[in-house]
Amino acid sequence: MHDVNVMIIDDDDITLTLLEHIVDELVSGEILVFSSSIKAHAFLLTEDAQRINLVICDWQMPSVSGIKILETLRVKLEDCPFLMVTAMPTRDLVMSAKRLGVTDFIAKPFSSDELTQKLSTLLEKISPA
User: Fold this and answer.
1) What CATH number did the domain enclosing 47 receive?
2) Tens-digit pLDDT profile for residues 36-77
3) Kind and range of the H or E element at 55?
4) Using CA atoms, how far apart are residues 19 and 26, in angstroms rounded to an integer?
């Protein structure tokens, strides 16, 4: 188990539940779950955002995109790992996200094993178990 705080943002309830379940198996810290990109973005603008160690975020959401979330995160926490979840990993998205400092991508649909492997790799870099 990794003692880290994870922020998960996805407007799809099924994906959000799956992400939360897998993260819960890997971390002992706090898991902040947002189905609203507006609320997630607002949280990142607060001082409480400083306690986040990892962000998992959908790219395409109504109101505030994953790219905007990443951009806001980089202003507050420039070294915080960011896993972008997307159903459409286009070249433009990948290039924009890389310019802003995305740490990794996972394409929907993904398997539990694939997500667990990506998260384990990111978590090992943050907080070796």
Assistant:
1) 3.40.50.2300
2) 999 999 999 999 999 999 999 999 998 999 999 999 999 989
3) strand 54-58
4) 11
In DSSP terms, which residues pair with 32 in a beta bridge? 7
Residue 57 domain boundaries: 6-124
Q: Look at the pTM and tell me if it is higher than 0.70.
A: yes
Instruction: For residue 1, tell me if it sits in a domain.
Output: no
User: For residue 97, what pLDDT band results from cuts at 50, 70 and 90?
Assistant: confident
For 14, 15, 59, 83, 90, the CA distances from 107, given in Å and listed in that order, are: 15, 12, 10, 10, 10
The count of structural domains within the chain is 1
Whether the Cβ atoms of residue 13 and residue 35 lie closer than 8 Å to each other: yes
